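We emphasize that the prediction below concerns an isolated chain of 255 residues; any contacts that depend on oligomerization or on bound cofactors are therefore not represented. The input was used exactly as deposited, without trimming of termini.
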Amino acid sequence: MARDLQGVRAAITGASAGIGAATAAELAARGCDLVLGARRFERLDALRADIHRAHPDAKVEIHPLDVADAAQCEAFARAAGPVGILVNNAGLARGTDKVVDGHEHEWREMIETNVMGLLRITRLFLPGMIERRGGTVVNVGSVAGLEPYPGGAVYCATKASVRSITKALRHELLGTGVRVCNVEPGAVQTEFSEVRFRGDAARAEKVYQGFQPLLPEDVAEAIGFLVSRPAHVDVEELVLYPTAQASTMAFHKTA
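Result of the prediction step, given as a token string:
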């Protein structure tokens, strides 16, 4: 039986687009009060307007947030206050270079955002959840954390870290009533590839040609399922693939 989320306060990082924005819409539809953070603050303002058009009574707060910035993380957590749901969605991939050709500033950006940012935000919100004896943390991982591929060593390593962090937290929080989940999507048609290819939209578009990728709404619906399970149920890991994808490197494309 689904848990009623009406009035449950939910914080979402990286909420300005893609999975984060879709998750905000999904949780608003389920009655959550939203606290949204992202680097692109102007997009959050537009997202809030979209949510209010669909759900006029929705409560939506927006705040600038770069999870790689400790001060911004602390300000976001203070502004959010007690939350029942935390969705660690902020993350990125940068480049497709092999390690031998890699750029350290890109490695650092991925590690700082995907690993350190997730750890930092989680550490800020966990004490309140533990004190209240409940809450759900959803980490947005990737199938890249399950199966590394050439040209993605550092990104894959960061998502493997997300998987390990999730498992460690499950042990550390055992008995507190706090749940931790990891949702790991395959190919999702978002701005992910455009960011990875440093703004090359045409190259990014080709990634999703010839098959039906997942949509952000597919992943958001899965997150809605995770957080709406009864308190005694923790879906620790949920892997989502497009039907046309069998692994990080195996696709069935028609063109």
